[in-house]
Write a structure and sequence with these properties.
356 residues, alpha/beta, 8-stranded parallel beta barrel, two-stranded antiparallel ribbon, globular
Length: 356
């Protein structure tokens, strides 16, 4: 029987276990350069015993930033700063993927360089507020991307992926979940386009497919993962019946032989089973355990074949040596729910969006 503590080959890289640290936004890249700090290198190195670390969301371009003090991968300074993080993780025997996250309509002009505004498939403002250095602000109506701007955004993802490899990352995870830009193209309430980038299912999956394909061509498909969250309502997303769109998406991506698909699960476990069956490669599951953080019971998802790898968010914040604690059956430090920011189940929680 395969267990979560058995090694696994991921795109040609041998991982020590199947325990993944899920990406969690932290807002620790202080300063105008949006560069990672020494504190971030320490944070990730402390958790290098994970089979795979996935970083907090990293904006692939200046306009892709949606929260204060989040790091980028689009300047020489950022590349150099990330190298200190990856070197620290590798010295401690870990493997680390950079999560590339363009937030799209989620953000505010005050978070962006002068003259830029949030962008999206369609000019539909999200309900709610985003935290800024000046306090909470209402989301604005985003600028609808032109076709030329869409193609440039695809190129930005590919460039950021190349930068990630230059910075020493083992690969990248594309954030297609939680109501950010890739998800905004997939969802019917945020993509109202009638051109080739919207409308029917084929149009709505096109942006995701082209981003994944461009990044795979840039750095090799064995270094690329994709995260999705079908039906996740976070960031004012509405997908009443996501099955058709995500089945089509996985069908188009299956031939690319990606490193993995990372599912942030909703309450419908039957959809998880369908997607698991449809995906021919490595399947990473961040299971739905609301209202609690994912716990040791999730290890059984590898044993029963529901997933190849299992991702932990909040529990990794409180337990940097989480794999050892899971293997020993505890004890576990209890995560402080007031610090959740992008942990296990954003979209299904009422936790304050504070930095973790």
């Amino acid at each position: 029987m395969t267990t979560a503590f058995d090694p696994i080959d991921l795109g040609g890289k041998r991982l020590t276990s199947r325990v993944v640290m899920a990406p969690m936004t932290r807002s620790r890249a202080y300063g105008p350069g949006a560069e990672p700090t020494g504190l971030m290198a320490t944070y990730y190195a402390q958790r290098a015993s994970a089979g795979l670390l996935v970083t907090e969301g990293i904006q692939p371009s200046p306009v892709g930033q949606g929260y204060p003090d989040t790091p980028g991968l689009h300047t020489a300074g950022q590349i150099q700063a990330w190298r200190t993080v990856t070197d620290a993780v590798h010295r401690d025997g870990g493997a680390i993927f950079a999560q590339l996250m363009h937030t799209g309509r989620i953000g505010h002009p005050s978070l962006l360089p002068e003259g830029l505004v949030p962008v999206a498939p369609s000019p539909v403002a999200a309900k709610g507020q985003v935290y800024t250095h000046q306090g909470p602000k209402e989301y604005v109506t985003p600028k609808e991307l032109t076709e030329a701007e869409i193609r440039q955004t695809v190129a930005d993802f590919a460039d950021a992926a190349r930068n990630a490899i230059q910075a020493g990352f083992d690969g990248v995870e594309l954030h297609g979940a939680n109501g950010y830009l890739i998800h905004q193209f997939l969802a019917p309430n945020t993509n109202l386009r009638t051109d080739a980038w919207g409308g029917d299912t084929e149009g709505r999956i096109r942006f995701a497919v082209e981003v994944v394909a461009a990044v795979a061509e840039a750095i090799g498909s064995h270094r690329v993962g994709l995260r999705i969250s079908p039906g996740n309502v976070y960031n004012d997303i509405a997908e009443d019946d996501p099955t058709e769109v995500y089945a089509a998406l996985l069908d188009r991506l299956a031939a690319l032989d990606l490193a993995y698909l990372h599912l942030m699960e909703g309450p419908d476990r039957s959809l998880t089973a369908r997607l698991r069956k449809a995906w021919p490669g490595t399947f990473v599951l961040n299971p739905f355990t609301y209202p609690d953080a994912t716990g040791p019971d999730a290890l059984a998802l590898v044993e029963d074949g529901s997933a190849d790898m299992v991702a932990y968010g909040a529990l990794f914040l409180a337990n940097p040596d989480l794999p050892a604690r899971l293997a020993a059956g505890g004890p576990f430090n209890t995560p402080d729910k007031a610090t959740f920011y992008g942990g296990d189940h954003r979209g299904y929680t009422d936790y304050p969006t504070l930095t973790a």
